[in-house]
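In response to reviewer comment 3 from the previous cycle, which asked for concrete evidence that the modeling workflow produces usable outputs, we include below a single protein chain processed end to end. The sequence was submitted unchanged, and the resulting structure tokens are shown without manual editing.
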Amino acid sequence: MHSLYNRVAGQSVERIAALSDGIFAVAMTLLVLDLRVPAAEAVHSEHDLRRLLIALSPRLLIFLMSIMTNGIFWVGQQTQLNYFARSDRNLAWIHIGFLCAICLTPFSTSLLAEFIHYRTALLVYWSNILALGLMLHWSWSYATRAHLLADDLPPEIHPAVIRRIVIAQSLYAGGAALCFINTYYSIAAIVLVQVNYAIAPTFCWGLFSRKSSED
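The workflow returned the following structure tokens.
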């Protein structure tokens, strides 16, 4: 039997949202720390500076990819929170687990930027994305079973949220699998998936209505 404390703990959706916004802000800010200004002693001409900036471009690509990763999942979590009428202790801990995966994005980003040619680094980055997707899926599924969703939730929202997460994760997995050919193919595929979910073009299969947000 649950104790009284466990029944009343973690009921504030607003507190989950506040914690989430702070952690997302810090994680996204930390991403830029991997972009280091070229050392002054290595620059003796405009050509040297341009050459070093071009050498920095793979790190810039990974930085932008991770900004989109975090942005997409921030919107996804926000979408779920908007439909939660209430929370409980279990849901609060699910979202703490989700935020733990968000805290890991600066590490997985730095690892991939440093070892961009290695499959292991790419797979670690993809595992971070997978963990985020699984936690959002768990969150929504648990909230549905525990009757934590708003009473006036339109019936089409539940399958749309689940479908969005499953399809996105399937596309990410397909993109990650390309690393066994070339890691740059994987990065390109992941970026394309992210651009699709970031701009939500109307011609993309109608996976989610324009009225709803992304995951």
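The radius of gyration is 20 Å. We consider this sufficient to address the reviewer's concern, and the full set will be provided in the supplementary archive.
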